[in-house]
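Newbie here. three chains, one complex. Structure please?
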Amino acid sequence: MAEDALELVDVEYEPLEPVVDLLAAAEGDACVSDRSFAYGDVDAALAAADVVVRHRVRFHRWSCTPVECYGVVAQWNEAEESLTAWANFQGPFTLHSVAAAALGLPGARLRLVTPPDSGGSFGIKSAVFAYVVLMGLASRKLGVPVRWIEDRLEHLAGSSAATGRSTQVEAGFTTDGELVALRYDAVEDVGAYVRAPEPATLYRMHGSLSGGYRVRNVAARNRVVLTNTVPSGLNRGFGGPQLYLALERTMDVAAGRLELDPAELRRRNLVRADDFPYETPSGALYDSGDYEGCLDDALAHAGWDARRAEATAARAGGRLVGVGMACVVEPSISNMGYITLAEPSAERGLPKSGNAEGCTITVSPLGGITVTLTTTPQGQGHRTVAAQIVADRLGVEPQDVTVLSESDTSTSPWTVSSGNYSSRFSGVGAGAVAVAAERLAERMAAIREHLGDPDASLRRVAGTAHWNPESLPPGMDAGLAVTAYYAAPNLLPPDGDRVASSAAHGFVVDVAVVEVDRDTGRVSVLDYVTVHDAGRLLNPLLAEGQVRGGLAHGAAAALFERLVWDDDGNLLTASFMDYSCPTAPDLPTPRIGHRESPSPFLPLGAKGLGEGPTMSAPAAIANAVADALGRDDVDPPFTPGRVWELLER
Amino acid sequence: MKPAPFRYVRAETTDEAVDALTREGDDAKVLAGGQSLVPALNMRLVRPGVLVDVNRVGELSGVARENGSLAVGATVRQADARLLAHPLLAEALPHVGHVVTRNRGTVCGSVAHADPAAELPLCLVLLGGTVRARGRGGTREISASDFFVSHFTTALEPGELVVETTWPLAQDDTGTGFCEVAQRRGDYALCMAGALARGEELRVAVGSVVDRPTLLDVDPERPGESAAAQVEPWGTVHASAAYLRHLVRVVVDRAVAQARTRAST
Amino acid sequence: MTEIAVTVNGRLYREAVEDRLLLSDFLRGRLGLTGTHVGCEHGVCGACTVRFDGVAARSCLLFAVQADGAEIVTVEGLARNGALTPLQEAFRSHHALQCGFCTPGILIAADELLSRGGPTSREEIVDLLSGHLCRCTGYTPIVDAIAEVAGA
């Protein structure tokens, strides 16, 4: 096996000076991108503000760690000079093109197949493409198919991880709590290389720099630095946890300075229900929502006032109990053009704004319905929802619809944005299914009308289309199949430095109640409430599953998980013994609330909701810990050892 | 993560196991529950030439009360309900790994592995138990305090097999206490302590923060503080040395309080 | 190579295996029983859990040679004649799996506990699950599913 062969390879390294810390990297020549953005007049607004709050946060590096690691089978075809690769990849996405270019192949000669039901990804399997290339090269060199299954140690050391980020925030307020200016100075650690699609983590949230607030003066300096650590990539929440830790911690620090209830300070600044659609300073178009309504729900659900009073009383009695919240806008369905913001607008080349997804529905001569997706599900229930939508449109039962979720770049309907990321299924994935089903239903209605039999069975309609095309309405194609591509209508290429970075925007309000054990530093989550507005819910059970999973991932980052390297760049958390994924006793059971403000821009009114609490939980828990400890300088993860150091400081 | 090649020898009797171990010497490892050994094999952190599997040695599966102790044979699993007859084991075993790993992991294997962060070696030292080892020259008894030498190092000679461990049962008026702090349920402890209290007598042992489970001579008035002054923890990725020293105080005080409460009821 | 005879899900297999072959790899690669999943190969994630002579155990921490003469049940052996067990049905109705990668190990571990008359409380279920990693569900629906079947 390969592992035996590996022991026969000797590598001699000439050590160079490593850089592991992102701030140290920012000082040296490891800074590879430095861009500044300004919307409104931040300098003037800060100068005029009654109170200016400055706060620094640091988000550590953590990862998705699906229980299934990467896997690739690559087979080079010498005669056709083509490569077929089977991988638990979550694209084709932009990365099929990157992989094809790396192999020097025209796109059509890289056939990439993703199985119908691979294990979880949470973003990280977007980076499988690099191994598709490597195994492709190995197969070409050896002339045989090559199989590679990543093991856990390889996965932790070398697959991918979320970025680390240090953010200095300056926020100006009036005395009555109006947020008038917001400035970020972010240093983003992308690890050893800027691997595609990075530095997207830094720009995915760009339209939402102002979060859920009405502030019009916003500025950001974005620096991207390299360190001698694993390259970064997609990770559930993708940029949201880092942004909202900075923004929502700053709101709590400001509430303290302004002597306002943190919930009240937020309420005074939230985008109002009659402001929608609301255009943010940095270019996002918030489609719909009732942010104050969500806030009210969360406060009521959590018993905010009572909880705060109990915590105050508990602290007076010597216990360390704290209550924290976070309000976050959850973008979904990314605009592939946002990444071009990393370059000044003059250097961007042709405009980009991709976000389309495809779907094919075919009806067999006997009336069997088959739906083909390219959304590469890993347990999110795409097949269930697609069957539900098609059955609904065509007047059949969901079990009469066969949904194929294997993706194959040679046969599936796909675009540069196809795949499973940025919570895009319920918007554009299901949107494409709905559009295709709608067109098919229209064709079937036209056939029935032409036949003069409005009650003609599906089988009769299908039979006619296949067996007797001459009897179809004039101009209609033979057979009965539709391929539709759907793109959200509200995503344009960046306009200067403004970008509608996502098509839909949900809203999440979380309330966390924690207690810190003074003796051990252990943080226990006593209660957790999360209220969501993700537009129309296509399947409540699946939606709740996404909320629970997203929260588990966010709470894991807040309380347990951290990748740590020593000063030489050696990974210290290299196994599941030391990279501490929480299990059942370690995580809170959330109380979940929903609101539904349908998106006016999307065919089903449904927004994504796979990432919200991953974005909100680190901030909400950090705020609760800060409240419990009565101090502002708290950064996750709140492991016992780190919290104890805070207590001792 | 696949082990380097090795040869597998299955022993059906203690004699066969000892013969195989003697024959292979340093190159052989005993395979019992495998819950610590096999991860190390898979990571190629250890690469013995021979594994001697003792799981089918029927004569080593006993749990017996003898001379005020519980005698536990080499193949007795950590999940074995017979162990719950011992109050300290009943207290500590739920902290040893997880339900499924305890199904397979053995008590004697954990002792022989001598991980300073493992619960069972700490208990054996606290109780003043013994390890019965058999080699070609016969069987000898090693006291727990002599058995554990350092990290993963014991007084066993090459060719010797731990056939039994004995766990003294305290008198009825003795209270036992056990406390550990771990990051997650089932993790190796960041720090742990066990305590026995009987009248004015107090016996305390700590683990994880020392190179082997260690009995400490503590001040009964301020046990935690005096224990913390006697150890020199080294920092880890999860915990600084200062934090671990602090935890010694916490877990010792908690274990002692528990033991004293139980002794008085 | 060592010859072994092992019963898996009621069927006897005779195979020659390399001594170092992990039981998990034997089940998956040799017998094609890919329901047993491999997530860490150091005993933490629990995905590879099977019943080994009735007892739930990590198949990544056992060698195939150790299974000579043993009786093994994998997740494929739970359903009978195409009918899911009540536990499997409960996983479905509670949405206790999303990607399903961790599910086989959890089903086997919970099935063993149920067969021994447990679990008697939610806490016991939570404790059982401390030996299993799931990254999709946040665990609560899994606890609910097992609790329903156990009446806990």
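Moderator note: The mean pLDDT of chain C is 97. Chain C is about 30% helix and 15% strand. Thread marked as resolved.
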